[in-house]
Amino acid sequence: MRQERVVGYWWLAPAFLFLILMLAFPIVFNFILSFQDATAATVLRPFKQFIGLKNYLAVLGDPLFPLVLRNSFVFTIGCIFFQFTIGFALALLFNLRFPLAGFLRGLLLVTLMVPTVVVSVLFRWLLSGDFGLINEALVRLHLLKRAVAWLAEPKTALVGVMLANIWIGISFNTMLLAPGIASIAPSLYEAAAIDGAGPVRRFFSITLPLLSSNILIVLLLGFIYTFRIFGLIYAMTGGGPVNATNVLPIQAYRLSFSFFEFGQGAAANVLLLVILLAIIALYLVLLSGEERMES
């Protein structure tokens, strides 16, 4: 028995080593770097000066930081709200039986297969002020008086980037919520209908309570994915114009590779990680509270 256990550990060793090299080592190295004087002049030195919390104070004291943090939360919360709402509605729709339901459900997977750079180029074209399809449609519907350069104006740039990310995330939310909806026994709805409960009452009394765990997981994964998004925003706007779409991952990249303040860039990444860990901790608290209520 003991020998079998040792053999099992040997089989797990490659995966464990991979996790250490690809996950643990970069996180630990970044954490150590955030406490060091790492700039373009010192980054290659084997031993860099320990400067305590100076990098964190520099990042937090930057006049740009409140704007960056606000952009991050506005972008994340706005995207999650529309992704979840539309995804939930589509999951409910695809739970019904109608022609081409399977085909349309499979078509949603296209958004997950399209590379981020392709999505960025597509939405840059759609949101173009000169020949963008979205402007053309809004002007023809008399919702806009003139074409708007969505990604070039500070007031609308963040909305434009959010539209691209919402488009990507709708199918993700739908695919995670649809199995949970399908697993609810139809007899529960039939019994509620016999008791006189309408569609709205059945939704709030049966569907939402039974999907609470699924919903928490979807929202948690959505927050983690959206809050750390870099490639989509960088390819569409680069964080501009005038920092209108500058979020925490973009700011960390700029500090490291535009201003060569590698210590401050590492500190910004640690702050990003701390925020995500706080959200995960909140999820665990909510989940444990839900489990206590069920028991």
Low-confidence stretches: none
Instruction: Name the CATH class.
Output: Mainly Alpha
Beta-strand percent range: under 5%
- Compute the number of helices: 14
Distance between the termini: 37 Å
SSE pattern: HHHHHHHHHHHHHH
- Mean pLDDT equals 87
User: Looking at the structure, what is the overall shape?
Assistant: globular
The CATH architecture comes to Orthogonal Bundle
Q: From the alpha-carbon coordinates, what is the Rg to the nearest angstrom?
A: 24 Å
The name CATH uses for the topology is MetI-like fold
Largest sheet: none
- Tell me the CATH superfamily: MetI-like
Kindly give the count of domains: 1
Total DSSP E strands:
0
Helix content: over 70%
* Helix and strand composition category: mainly alpha
Explain the overall architecture.
The protein contains 14 helices and no strands. It is mostly helical and 295 residues long. The chain has one domain: MetI-like (MetI-like fold, Orthogonal Bundle). α3 crosses α11. The two termini are 37 Å apart.
